[in-house]
Design brief:
The chain has 238 residues and is mostly helical. It has twelve helices and two strands, in the order H-H-H-H-H-H-H-E-H-H-H-E-H-H. The longest helix has 36 residues.
Length: 238
């Protein structure tokens, strides 16, 4: 693909999406019974510019990643996405979620979900919608814990954290080795795990305290649904 088409593909969404975002917030403000000059000024000087910037950056990133996806995945063509209704719906919905988030980890997760939808990932359409809501609701800390739960021992190796040679104990012991900051705030740790468990993504908080052999201490704490979510938010790009 030539350089010129790539530039067009990346640049084209910027103005359109920015205008759409500006209009969307103006429409939202218009439902307020009384809007004075101060409110309009607030919108024009404080709200509108960063909103437009977020949307432009989001669409630029999506366009750039789709171009890269076309280069890496044999048989994948960007043009074919215009007929992919699920992809179009996912882009629109993910965009509305992304522009109200500023945390890099969550935005990247949403970007990856769009790419995986473009590749027709083996996740049911309804479940994809549920997963996008999960990304919106959860925090980067939730996502980090979920990735740890997928393979605690491998996670420790990747983070270059020394692996304790325990032969018996509770999974919570290893969890606090992986996340020492949560060991200092155990109420928050319990909330994170409970939130994941409530959504069917991981084991519950109580199970983390059950004494067991080493293989269970270091074994996965993620559910099948949790694995599907991780696959959905993991980049398909090399």
């Amino acid at each position: 693909m030539s350089t010129e088409p790539e530039k067009n593909l990346i640049n084209k969404p910027k103005a359109e999406v920015s205008d759409a975002g500006h209009l969307a917030v103006r429409m939202a403000l218009s439902v307020i019974p009384v809007i004075g000059g101060a409110t309009k000024e607030l919108f024009n000087t404080i709200i509108a510019p960063p909103l437009a910037k977020r949307q432009a950056e989001w669409m630029e990133a999506i366009a750039a990643r789709l171009i890269e996806l076309e280069k890496q995945v044999e048989g994948f063509k960007i043009e074919s996405l215009s007929n992919n209704e699920n992809f179009i719906s996912t882009v629109f919905y993910a965009t509305t979620l992304a522009i109200r988030n500023h945390q890099k980890e969550k935005i990247e997760a949403m970007q990856n979900s769009v790419l995986n939808t473009a590749l027709n990932i083996a996740v049911e359409e309804d479940l994809q919608h549920v997963f996008l809501n999960f990304i919106d609701e959860l925090t980067p800390s939730h996502l980090s814990v979920l990735k740890y739960f997928d393979d605690p021992e491998d996670w420790l190796k990747q983070k270059v954290i020394p692996i304790p040679n325990y032969s018996y104990g509770g999974a919570i012991t290893i969890f606090y080795v992986a996340f020492p900051e949560l060991a200092k705030n155990q109420d928050f740790a319990k909330q994170l795990v409970s939130d994941l468990s409530a959504r069917g993504l991981s084991r519950n908080w109580e199970s983390m305290h059950v004494m067991d052999i080493r293989s269970s201490m270091y074994g996965p704490k993620i559910t099948s649904l949790g694995k599907q979510l991780l696959a959905f938010i993991t980049s398909p790009l090399k």
